[in-house]
Amino acid sequence: MAQNTRPKPLSIKDIARLADVTHPTVSRALRNSPLVNPRTIERIQRIARESGYRVSAVARGLVTQKTNTIGVVVTTIADPFVSEVVSGIEHAANDHGYSVFLADSYADPDREVRVVHLFAERRVEGIVVTSSRVGTRYLRILSEMKVPIVLINNQRRGEFVHSVMIENVEASRLATQHLIGLGHERIAYLGDRYGYQSDTERLGGYRQALKQARRPFLPELVVHGDGKPEGGRQAMETLRSLPQPPTAVFCYNDMSALGALGAIHQSGLRVPEDISLVGFDDLFFASYTQPPLTTVRQPRQRMGLLAMEILLKLMSGQDSADTIKVPAELIVRESSASPRA
Amino acid sequence: MAQNTRPKPLSIKDIARLADVTHPTVSRALRNSPLVNPRTIERIQRIARESGYRVSAVARGLVTQKTNTIGVVVTTIADPFVSEVVSGIEHAANDHGYSVFLADSYADPDREVRVVHLFAERRVEGIVVTSSRVGTRYLRILSEMKVPIVLINNQRRGEFVHSVMIENVEASRLATQHLIGLGHERIAYLGDRYGYQSDTERLGGYRQALKQARRPFLPELVVHGDGKPEGGRQAMETLRSLPQPPTAVFCYNDMSALGALGAIHQSGLRVPEDISLVGFDDLFFASYTQPPLTTVRQPRQRMGLLAMEILLKLMSGQDSADTIKVPAELIVRESSASPRA
DNA sequence: TTGTAGGCGTTATCAT
DNA sequence: ATGATAACGCCTACAA
To answer: Which residue of B lies nearest to A51 if distances are taken between CA atoms?
Structure first.
């Protein structure tokens, strides 16, 4: 209980006293203003350095009306997909002199809105939101705050102007066509149950591929996980218990596929001999599953970087493309093969 | 190039004008001061709400000398271990009204120091650093900034006062004893090559276990990965090519184990029949590998939370325990078994 | 080349 | 219960 009240940090006035000048001179010297005598600059900077002085970004932010900060809202940072996107954002932000505030929304719309408001109070100059779950009812609220917002893989299409999205429909059509091309007749879709836009779109691509191949769409072959391994495992068991189980499963994401893979192994079947499996995301473990997972690659770091680039444009007052759709790439590994005759 | 200069946010003075009071009254009303008339409070708050007013946390921070922010420095957020620790920190921070700045150090000591300095400029009230690589040469620099710092799994023991660490030695002794108990004679240690303290300690626990069991320590059975799957894969191949390969491998972390597992499968061998494998961390995929991975669990979210709790104490001026050592738990799954006779 | 004065948006300390 | 005034630490005219 020592209650050591921390000493106040030094201010430019303190440095001014030490250097026997006035504080505006210090302010200028520290920013290498050409207005001030080079020798004075050097002296002041030395004194500042030796005394451990650090400008107060908060005071500077108040007067310049520029905080050089952005806010990043994620469902949860403890998700490999999310954390890589954030990594891309963070990198780009830092390269441009921005610090990033991070906050989890836990996929709770109320919490998401609260966080965005909090960021507004902190006077962030821009906000990136991944997997936004904010519906139309908040449209007004978000629009009244004048901070540019870029969404990554947002839930509803066209709700906000600026976003970075993966080409879900095209990618899952490709993935499904891959399975059809291998000769599969009964292809399941193991989706997500939380009503994300990306799930809807991936299901859409799956259905398009079936339709183009003149295959029937069988509702019983669509099941729902939770986007995580456990949900994938359970959903896979549901599929396995069907009177006529599928010979191939296209999963909403790699996390689900991981769980599905576990369920398949547990039931004594083999991939791809007994059942083919395709994921989505190409997370780091995809090439290390047994067998290595065929999946759709999303350039996660790049998506974060693109979001940041849009944000930088918007923050500088420029307009920017409404929506960037990032192409995805099918990575064929060993979890998909022709069904046994 | 629309250059829409964003309008300045409303200030309490604007609200004061709208409410026909002075700005201190607005300030008080918005914080529900008992000093101001309840009807006035309600009126002012309504006006503020309807006009979309948000307090400026930066102005408030300047006058109160309290920013309610902390800084978190990580090697890279794009690492499942790190991101879960950060998740724990973020959660605890938010529960206590703190916003968190996030920055990557990319395991670069210079960058780490720069980031810490930047955080100091932003007047964060505390800092958490994971896997700090800052050596003694920065001790002075870091000590001269008066911000409390808590390290998680820091590189060098005893360098800083406050830290949260996993019981590396005890845990890896346990893991190695597990393998010895299963009857393995040739047990390898697949470590990390970057000289982290935790690697040294885990190697130490491994050696202790061998010694206690009166087994020889064989230097050729110690190899080094990079803490990631690819490095684990390569290191495993080295082990496989030994004249007398090991029958069991204890890995520095699960990421390395994942790569090692891939290498084993690739060479046509089986786990655990031909070779036992034990990891460290218990990352989310550990129970979904084939076979499920025996590993040492680190309570990552909890470690982040503990770090935050120490930090909160320090920030409130209290003293706190120097170092918290968190016990780890051996999770026995199916990747470890007795060697074949 | 440097100093003086004012203001950024709050909160805090006085008065009234 | 409210208003007037100062202060937080910095930047930016403007003056010298």
So the answer is: B144
